[in-house]
Amino acid sequence: MRVVRLEITALSPFRQMSFPFSDEQGPRMVTVVHGGGGVGKTALLNAIATTRPGNAIVQQPQRTLERPSQLEPAEEQTPPRVMCEWSLGQDDPERPHTLSLASPNARVFVSDEQEGLRRREQAMFDKLARERGFAFLAIPSARWFSRQPIAIIAPTRNVARYDVRASLSFDDRSDLARDTKQALAYAAIASSLQPRGPERGLDFRLHGDAMRSVIESLVELAGFSYAGLDPFSFEPIFRSASRAERPFDGLPTRARHLVAFGALTVKTLWAAYPGRDPRLSEGVVAIDEVDLHQDPGIQGELVNTLRNALPNVQWILTTTSPVVAGSCDIREVLALRWLPDIDHVELYLGTEARTH
C-alpha cells in the first residue's frame, strides 16, 4: 500500500490542508517534508499513522506552543479530523481506485449512500489488515540506542510478528537498540538454519539476503561494512575502512541510525509479507527528522540510498536540513512554513518549496 493524499482539519498547527503524495504517475516513492521546528512535520506523520488500514483512531486536540491560536470560537470547537487516501497495490491488486479512510465519526462524502459505502469499506479493510500485509513503519525523532546485550525470545511473538493494530506514535522516545539487534540476528540465524530450500513454504534466505544487502548499502555511507554476527554473542559486527571490527554498540551514532533505518524496515516487510523478498515488497516507512546526527555528506546521499535499497517502499521523511531537501527532485518536496503575521502554517510545492 501507499499514501496518495492526506487531508487534515483542525489539527494544530493546521486549520484545513491537503497534502499530495502522488503525481501524474501515481504515488510518489519519496516525499520529503521540509521545515523548521513547530511547523507540524510530526503532526503530519502522526495523522498518517493513525489513519491507515487496520488502525484509524480519533485525533486528539493539540495546541502549538510556537504561536498562540487566533481561531474564532466556532473554529476552536471543530473536532480535529483526518482523511487519508491509500492505493492498496500488492495488498489488493485488483482494486481500481483508492481507499478513503477517515477518523472515526468524520464524514468524507456529502451523499449518505457514498459515505455509507466508504464506512463499510473501512470496516472491511480494518479486518483484512489484521490478517496480513499493510506494512507501515514509524521511526520517531526522539530515538536513541542503549547498550544492552541481544536477546531473542519466541521470534513468532516479537521480531517475526507484525501487528497492524500496534499503536505508533512519533511523540514517544524510542530505544531502537534492542529491536535493531534482534532484526539483524533473526535474519542471519533463520537464513543460516535453512540451507536446503524453503521450509513450510518460506525461504528464509530471501530475508537474510535482503537484510545484508540493505544494511550494506546504508552503513557504507558512514564508512563501514556489515560483517555478520559474532558466533559467541550473536551481536552484530561491522568493519571500518581499516578492517577493524566493531560491535553495533561501538558504531558512531550516525551509523547506528542508518543501520536501524534498514534493519527495522526489512524486519517489518518480512513480518507483514512472510516468504516474499523484502526488496520487492511494498510498504510505507515514515521517519521523523531523518537528518538527525548525520553530517552533510551523508545527508546529501541518504534519500537516494534508501530509495535504491528498497525501491518498492514509499518513504515519507521529515527534515530541517536544506541538504536533504535539495537532494530530491523538486516534485518530491513539501515545504511547511510559518509566515509573518499569519497564525497558521502554509504549504508550498514545486519551485515555491525551494524559495520559501
Q: What structural category arises from helix and sheet content?
A: alpha/beta
Q: Helix segment count?
A: 9
Order of helices and strands: EEEEEHEEHEEHEEEHHEEEHEHEHEEH
For the record, give the distance between the C-alpha atoms at the N and C termini, rounded to a whole number. Answer: 31 Å
Mean pLDDT: 90
Number of strands: 19
Hey, roughly how much beta strand do the residues contain? 15-25%
- How big is the Rg? 21 Å
Describe this structure in words.
With 356 residues, the protein is an alpha/beta fold. 30% of the residues lie in helices and 24% in strands. It contains nine helices and 19 strands. It has helices spanning 41-49, 73-76, 112-129, 177-192, 204-219, 253-272, 296-309, 322-326, 351-355, and strands at 2-11, 14-20, 22-23, 26-27, 30-34, 51-52, 55-56, 81-87, 99-102, 136-139, 143-144, 174-175, 224-229, 236-240, 245-247, 283-287, 313-319, 333-338, 345-348. The strands form six sheets. It has a six-stranded mixed β-sheet, sandwiched between helices. Strands 2-1-8-9 form a four-stranded antiparallel β-sheet. The chain has a three-stranded antiparallel β-sheet with strand order 13-14-15. Helix 7 links the parallel strand 16 (283-287) and strand 17 (313-319). Helix 5 (204-219) packs antiparallel against helix 6 (253-272). The protein is globular, with a radius of gyration of 21 Å.
